[in-house]
């Protein structure tokens, strides 16, 4: 679990650097707010997905807790690295007036639809990941 925690921190650091460079038009305080709020929202959404995936898995609670924690530590930073830099880039272009309000809406809708599809795929993947993890632990 320690190694997974370290990997999670490294991915979060990489995500933070990617986001920071994509929102260069923002003031320092707004960059920090965007990053923190974005990471918290993605963490909560990932936690909900992991919780839904874990429903129905019949194993000892301690094993299930480890599987859920592992999934959360892996998938939350990965989701962050795929969503927030792109979202920051969209807002940065809008702030630079390179995107109109209409184009901003279109890109946000496209991002939302893509995220919805990814969530559906990720839900199945997380459940398979947790079952594989639990089957290896219980051998």
Low-confidence stretches: none
Question: If helices are DSSP runs of H or I spanning 4 or more residues, what is the number of helices?
Answer: 4
- Span between termini: 18 Å
SSE order: HHHH
Shape: elongated
Radius of gyration: 17 Å
Overall structural domain count: 1
Mean pLDDT: 91
The portion of residues assigned to helices is over 70%
Strand proportion: under 5%
Number of strands: 0
Largest beta-sheet details:
none
Overall SS class: mainly alpha
Write the layout of secondary structure elements.
Elements: H1 2-22, H2 28-54, H3 61-95, H4 101-137
Characterize this entry briefly:
The protein is 86% helix and 0% strand. With 139 residues, it is mostly helical.
Description:
The protein is mostly helical. The chain has one domain. It is built from four helices and no strands. It has helices at residues 2-22, 28-54, 61-95, 101-137.
């Amino acid at each position: 679990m320690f190694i997974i925690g370290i990997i999670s921190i490294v991915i979060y650091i990489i995500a933070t650097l990617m986001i920071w460079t994509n929102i260069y038009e923002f003031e320092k305080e707004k960059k920090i707010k965007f990053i923190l709020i974005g990471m918290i929202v993605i963490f909560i959404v990932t936690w909900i997905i992991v919780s839904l995936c874990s429903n129905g898995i019949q194993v000892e609670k301690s094993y299930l807790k480890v599987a859920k924690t592992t999934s959360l530590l892996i998938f939350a930073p990965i989701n962050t690295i795929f969503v927030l830099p792109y979202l920051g880039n969209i807002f940065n272009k809008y702030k630079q007036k390179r995107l109109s309000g209409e184009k901003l809406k279109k890109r946000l809708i496209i991002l939302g639809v893509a995220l919805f599809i990814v969530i559906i795929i990720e839900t199945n993947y997380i459940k398979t990941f947790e079952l594989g993890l639990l089957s290896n632990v219980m051998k």
